[in-house]
Amino acid sequence: MIAFLTICYCLFIWFIFFKLKLLPWNLRSQVVVAIIGVVAIFGLLVAMNLYQPYSKDLRIYRYVIQIVPRVTGRVIDVPVQRDVPVKKGDVLFKIDPRPFEYRVEKLKAALAEAEQAVGQLKAALDGAVASVAKAKAERDLAKFEFKRAVGIQKRDPGAVSALKVDQTRQQLAAADAAVTESEAAREKAQLAYESEIGGVNTTVAQIRAELKDAEYDLAETTVYAPADGFVTNLSLFPGQVASQLVANSVMSFVEERETTVIATFTQNVLRYIKPGDIAEVVLDDQPGKIFPATVDTVIWATGQGQLAPSGNLQEFTQQQPAGRFAVRLTLDGVSDLRLPAGVHGAAAIYSDKAKAIRIIRKVIIRMYTWLNYVSMA
Q: Could you tell me where the beta strands, DSSP code E, fall in the chain?
């Protein structure tokens, strides 16, 4: 940029002193021209860097989704192709569904059995209630026989033997124990029958939940594209085992739903950049083109300012270079342009100060994109 401004100033001097010959070219004019040139170029540099900042560190970013299956199994089909655009919902690959189908069928049978068992529990409860009634009736009869034997013995000790009285007493005790046992059996049958969650038998509810989980796993044997995009570094083939471990992603999916444009700037120009400022972007893969843009946000953080949780004290053994701050830009009117992830470029932001010198920055950024036609870097 200094060279460009110097050349422009030299052309202006040539035009004034040599072409038009408006002023004499002597020692005094040479000194004045040199001083004015240095001051003017330095002032322009300061004004442009502060009020019309420029960055040659711009990149296009896209979100990359690591595709990990929900279930583990052997891959039977991979219809997706490397670097070929796909739509959201297109099939990426399929896992052998048979083991999951078998589990679904097993749980369906268990659910049917559990639902039938609910009727059996009701019948068991009814039987336990009848057993309690029978035991109580037998206890009442044993109590009557015991009282009758005791009464006869009191009136006529020779009519009923002591052995007979003891027998009726033992029969009454046995009848009391039978009542207690039948009531415990009835309570157990009642608890089993009335064990519910939301009006559904607990066993039935548990098997239904397991069945839903199994059906979900079965559905997850087919993996679909999570968004519009494409798959890169594809190395998955039929016969391989796809694991549900997050660390073992089987492919990388580059989504095209959102494009993030980030340009980094030095810290001394940040205070004059604000959301809504107009900007211009040039991309290395689009030489000769200027894309209008708008400042979206200034990301007020860098990795150098991060304090990660640790039990160790921060060490400051050497001075680190000042980090650059990222500015997120929004490109205007480029919805039909495919912007590959990682494309490099430059950006100029035009603040509302020193608008008169915007023309110089516009010329500089256009020189950058024109030079992309012959750049060998």
A: 54-67, 73-77, 91-95, 196-197, 200-201, 222-224, 229-232, 241-242, 251-265, 278-283, 291-299, 325-331, 344-350
